[in-house]
Model the fold of this input.
Amino acid sequence: MMNTPAASATGPRDGAVLAQLVGEAVAHAQGHDSTEDAAEIEAITDAMVRLLIGAPLHSDGKLTIVSLATEARLRRNKLTHKHTGLKDLFYALVKARDPLPEPLPESARARAAKQQQDLARVRAERDDLRVQTQLLARIVHVLEIENSKLKETNAALQRQVAARASVPDLTRRRRS
Done:
């Protein structure tokens, strides 16, 4: 096996180079078979290259077998039944392209857990404040209604006092 830069498929361009090299090797190895198979292999590897470098011509650009088949302008069963090695290669290149995230260090985990707790506490405070605000709004509304009723009662009493002030109270004069 040759040790080429394409052998360490870490980036999208390296994966594309690897797909191209493998496709050419497979096409060469199957050179004694039909030219139809060689054309399909070439179409698939060219489609792999375009998808892996992010330059699709005929598909949505997603890194799926359906997009690969669309990009190669072949039916999907050509990849899932006939050229399974190329399908597996494509999955491997996609997986190698997206490395798994490194686990968080313990301090970052503790910080994230504390942030989650703080967020839960702040949300609980927010909900409590909402309830208190609604209660205060109801209290203010009731007080406004009572205040308007008191104003009406006060106005009625003032009218009664004004009406009585014009008529002298004769009962008080007799006692004095």
Summary: Confidence is low (pLDDT under 50) at residues 1-10. The chain is about 75% helix and 0% strand.
